[in-house]
Specification:
Chain A: It comes from Esox lucius (Northern pike). The complex is a heterodimer of chains A (587) and B (561). With 587 residues, chain A is of the alpha/beta class. Chain A contains 14 helices and 16 strands. Chain B has 561 residues and is α+β, with helices and mostly antiparallel strands. In chain B, helix 1 packs antiparallel against helix 4. Classes of the chains: A alpha/beta (587), B alpha+beta (561).
Amino acid sequence: MMGSLCREVVTLQLGHYSNFVGTHWWNLQDASLTYDPDTPPGELQNDVLFREGQTLGGQMTYTPRLIAMDLKGSLQTLRQEGCLYETGKDLTALTWEGNVMMHKASPTAKNPFLLDLDKLDKGEQLSGVDFEQIPVPHCSVSVETINSRLERAQKGYQLEGSVRVWSDFLRIHLHPRTISVIHKYNHDGETHLLEAFGQGEALLQGTVLEELEDRLHFFIEECDYLQGFQVMCDLADGFSGLGSKVTEMLQDSYGGRGILTWGLAPVSHPDTTPMKELYHLFNYSLGMVHLAKNSSFFCPLTLKGGLARQPPAPPFFPHLNYDSTLWYHSSSVLALALDALTVPYRLRHNSIPMWEFADTLTVSGRKVVAAYGALPFPMAQGSSLPDALGACAATLPWKPLSTCPELGDGRCFGQSVTLRGLEGQSLVSQQRLGMQPPTTLHSLDCGEDVLSSYINGHYPATPFSVHLVSSPSKLTPPFPQIFSQTLGPQGFLQDQAPPLNTLSPLVSSIPVLTSLQSSPALGPWLSELQRGASTMDPRRVAPSFLSQGPELSDFQESLEQLRLLAGCYRDDCDGTLRSSSEEDDDS
Amino acid sequence: VFPRLVSHNLALITFSSTVCGLIYLTNVYIMSAIKALNPKAEVARAQAALAVNISAARGLQDVLKSNLGPKGTMKMLVSGAGDIKLTKDGNVLLHEMQIQHPTASLIAKVATAQDDITGDGTTSNVLIIGELLKQADLYVSEGLHPRIIAEGFEAAKEKALEVLEELKVTRVMDRETLIHVARTSLRTKVHSELADLLTEAVVDAVLAIHRPNEPIDLFMVEIMEMKHKTDSDTQLIRGLVLDHGARHPDMKKRVEDAFVLTCNASLEYEKTSVNSGFFYKSAVEREKLVAAERKFIEERVKKIIELKNAVCSNNNKGFVVLNQKGIDPYSLDALAKEGIVALRRTKRRNMERLTLACGGIAMNSFDDLTPECLGHAGLVYEHTLGEEKYTFIEDCGNPRSVTLLVKGPNKHTLTQIKDAVRDGLRAVKNAIEDGCVVSGAGAFEVAVHDALIKHKPSVKGRAQLGVQAFADALLVIPKVLAQNSGYDPQETLVKLQTEYKESGQLVGVDLSSGEPMVASEAGVWDNYSVKKQLLHSCTVIASNILLVDEIMRAGMSSLKG
């Protein structure tokens, strides 16, 4: 009975890059929604993330249970309250009978995608697309959605040049309580930037706190079985500090729930300087400690090569062809990974509540976990999972998404593996009758067993769980086309690349394999971060970093905690925090 | 050597506000020297620095000038995306603007700090600072050293504070006086009809929560907004309005004469202390754990029901549970069957208010529930608007926490009324705590000007010029008040000064006629603490800006990492 409950999740997006990832993520969620009553319910329960609502005019709405925070000037074309609950444009000042002076900014220019979206919202046709020639999939006209139209239009929007902020590719409507703008700091420009951890920490008080509490209250009070929060938080700037305070507040107020925090960082920032890089390093370190402490688990999520000041090159994904400096691109890869990583607590049946999910991965204070992903999972068109896994028998197909490379020695404290996008029959070997199976993988009867057996081969005798979901993440526009020529429309490897000079078909979905791990590899990785930050004296190298707190002693205490956290990952460690007198030298 | 004002990001003279659509560009930026050490650093010196700063201060003054007073101009800011902000409040406006100029930003910070401390006076602050610098500039350009002017400012401020002490009117803060104070504040924010409506609500709200000899805690006045298509109204609820309702279809929408149980203890399934790993446990085992936890919750619900049956057995009284933690559908169901109305996830900040409004004790566990823990409300009812629900808890006997309910057709109207109500509350609180008030409508400034001119000869040397500058600067308030109402500022000022000399009474501008009026008779009262704070902060910031003789701009990009 309790197993099939809808356990609601409230999502928080703190910071501009988090909102980039979040926007892709919600576009992906939206693409998999179906309003057709005849379609059987999917494997994932959408009500976990979305809420049903009603406008003052009585119209039904379905919007994310989401709070997104960003800075002044970051919204551009997006209205803070959205337009779903609009009560009509009223430009009269009811409260004043004297002079009213109007200051109207010229409307912000919209890119072709947003213009098309406006057209579809108004029920108009898209230009350049002949709908008559495109076969309508068998569903009644009434459930024709903006998504299905965009999907069928197969229009490739090249938004690479025109995406400035996340609202430039936001496809869905948000609830008026979703967007919260912090007026104290500017999104861009030269002054009043939210750059340091301490600035962010100091933000969560007074009206900012009260407003956040009100928004949380609105989304949470209506939940019957709230399972927790997924927090996406920028790690490089002051949002790292704000996130620390927000998660602390969540823990105080909703202690029994899960708080899964993803620390996001873009590969690079525009106009960066050595000083800013130093700030980032401090923000990563402080954020790592505090977000981990206040969350059920904390997972850094970035395509950077490392968190040090001169990081190595980003990980190479053989079938992706993306520009790592573009936030629009890198955030789409992370959103795709997140769509698989979060599967266990979003399942319609036998889902695992967030708190249980986190507890299992964070035994003995090991609150930081690392993510890995095969994007896409390399599989030839028409082949099977045993074949595909057999092809990567020697090395795991996934790459680090938290900058923490695997040790490759088979040690792991626990991991959750998710495979999305493979249909039932391709999960097991097809050539069984009478033939000797080439590998043990080919002899197994179900996908779970095949994948488990494979993981077990690489991580023998370590605890792990596998989840398989057959529906892939649907990549409808404006998801960027960042795939190599070798991928077919369903994201499987093609035997031969399409001939030159022909337009390759748009990739509309890809299979994804992810792993979330707590492993000894995190120990030296955290130590390295700690050493990088503690060799610098902020008073000397970045005097204004601590100007709004924390105190130097607290700063040093946080780095000491980071060192102790790293110690939790020693293999011989029984889990109790090691006392500081013990020398810790794991590298 | 003068003190230097060096900041990392100094001297961007664009003072722009892309959000509001106000754009100010002042091209006075002068790059007088380029530092050999740091080619990217930009420097402006002495007179040039002063010119830069003064123009920034005047720029800010120009933006806010038209706001001052009941006849000022309302500003409607529409962003590129269509977001609307409606305001007449200098404080709100300063928060909305993206001020890039460091000096302007400094002034804005002081002015908004004034609002944080006293709740009003932002616009006056900006106007006086701008005017002090303008007056000072007249003398500086003739060769007077800024430091001497600053000395004069300081002397003038001391005198002005003395005059403030003499002119303040100490009296018992009865309802009528408070209404005058609140009205003076509110009429500058919203139109007179609405202002009068708000005035009564605001004064009664503060009087309801005020206990003699105790500081007034305005957190005990909740401002609740309600978006309503047709209704536009503000009313005082002597109790609480919560923006959520009961989550069970069988619970009553209206309960009279009710016991109120305020509590903070979970009535829903939460994670157990047992460390349950999904690596090892089957679905069946997990179900068992959940069932065990449910039993625990059921016990708690039982205790509430027992208490309800104990106190409601021989009467028709209602029973309402307000819980800060969650209540899951099973618990709601059990409570509903017993005729109990239950609300979950009451806001943390409302918990204290609830017991202050209804009485009783907030319970953190259900182990020792007794009838003494319960509060009381004469009426509890639910109101639904679209997807929003409101629960009114009224008729609370002697509530020490009340609610101002603001209804309006759209967000920007609601926000503006809420801002005005907040300022009104602060004005009433200040008046009660000061125990005195000061004549408004420019009367105070005219009187101080007069006193300073008389005081001038007793100041030594050229600092007298600073006193003169200070006195003249204060007159910006009556002048702008007159100007905003469409009267000639100089003519009005002369009339005021003449009338003041002749009658000796504190006269301000009558904005409906442009003629002098006795401010106290017209009931135009300002806060003593606002005026006092104003004199202090304007002098400090204007002096500091005057003394800046070098502006350096060193962007982050030029610092070595």
